[in-house]
């Protein structure tokens, strides 16, 4: 058996892939420039201009392609490339190098290298600009030297792509059908490579460092995006784990248990770019759209038309399904600078979620509800602006609105009143809208205790086990010292879940789960036994959860849940469920 070699980095997608190493080395080595007197500056200027035009066209093409595959937000990086291409300082730098008698390719290299050095010495986002400049420099050099490079869209199936760095254009070109994994020497969790890899559900490890450069072309390599490991010459055991992680194949359409009980398997998404991968991985709909992501990383909130366009395109992606939009959930771990959230002694117990929407963010909340009600209208309302969705008129799925951090019946009553008033304003203005399904998250012990009263007022409850566990166990989500307590398999949490589903038994109110627990296929049978009607999972695990649902017998699941509910310790629960 060959010796395994394990390199560590930062795992960015919870998947394991194995395949054959293939290096992507786009850097171009130029030989020394010829003597200046032998160079014709006019001819070189014209070569540079032609190369710049060709680069501009290619950037446009790649931008469109990236937008189609991974979304407008990620594709926006190509706009930065286009701006650099026409940046006067760069043009001046190239002009001055041509004036010094350098050929076009050397002029490009000298100019860009200076800017790369400047940006690389800065912090944060500015440092990322250095990558954009390298990307653009190499593109121009490839054109000027007629260099042939790997066509990343056409690598052989089963390729594990290795690179010193992956530029946005490289990553956007990757074909998930062909690429078994990606390992990159540089980059962090929020690097472009990581973001694209996640959006495409590719196993990926970034920030592996120089050790990666010793991996030979053609070696067998396993990429463990969960553990953050790159394993060269993996042994049989490792390969078996990759096979397991390759997971179930995508299943279109609804699944039922072996005895015919329908369980909806939806996906959790945070940004428009994640919607298409959810469709591709066979989700029945969106069980949690974390709409606060539409409000992050910007200077002002999205207006009604922009929000409406985002909601409508999610609805159009699931014409047969349901899209559950959670209203703005800020505060706690999700600050938004322009909202000027006050310091809180304990933000998780402070003014967050619905508490803000019915308080200081009332105007934003009303705008969001207007956008949601209008988004659900059959067709014909295009949001009234150029930001509006061009899917207008397409078949749309069913919209549902869900409230975060509910702990009082009064909150639900107040929101119902706001909904009525928004609907009546739209009515009077003759604006088309549709009343959505209406539900609340059960993420506070108070909501679980009141589940029966809530169920009388809403169409659905969705259990957010991430927060529910934090509040039931009094163990902060982000505090490593109490991480072991943050486990939904503790009997207190399991019984709170059952309390919630039981409260809705026999009513028209359905009960789903959108916390991370719902996405763990090892717990699917238990959750069916606990009475969940819907499971909303991370996009990558949707096929595995669907597969588990269709292997489950509801009677056996109920018996399993009864045993787990009778257990007194987490260790007993784990043993009963059959996990370590
Ligand atoms: C799904 C949940 O919400 P969040 O976005 O806070 O993880 C949860 O708390 O389980």
UniProtKB/TrEMBL annotation:
Q: Where in the cell is it found?
A: Cytoplasm
Question: Which parts of the sequence bind phosphoenolpyruvate?
Answer: 290, 326, 466-467, 477
Annotated Pfam families: PEP-utilisers_N, PEP-utilizers, PEP-utilizers_C
Q: Where is it chiefly localized?
A: cytoplasm
PROSITE patterns associated with the record:
PEP_ENZYMES_2
Q: Which cofactor does it need?
A: Mg(2+)
- Enzyme class (EC, first level): transferase
Alphabetically, which GO biological process terms does the record hold?
Answer: phosphoenolpyruvate-dependent sugar phosphotransferase system
Catalytic center at which residues? 192, 514
This entry's Gene Ontology molecular function terms read: kinase activity; metal ion binding; phosphoenolpyruvate-protein phosphotransferase activity
List residues of the PEP-utilising enzyme mobile domain.
156-228
Q: What positions does the domain PEP-utilising enzyme C-terminal occupy?
A: 250-552
Keyword vocabulary terms for this entry: Cytoplasm, Kinase, Magnesium, Metal-binding, Phosphotransferase system, Sugar transport, Transferase, Transport
Phosphotransferase system enzyme I N-terminal domain spans which residues?
8-129
Similarity comment: Belongs to the PEP-utilizing enzyme family.
Query: What is the protein named?
Result: Phosphoenolpyruvate-protein phosphotransferase
**Taxonomic lineage from the root:** Archaea, Methanobacteriati, Methanobacteriota, Stenosarchaea group, Halobacteria
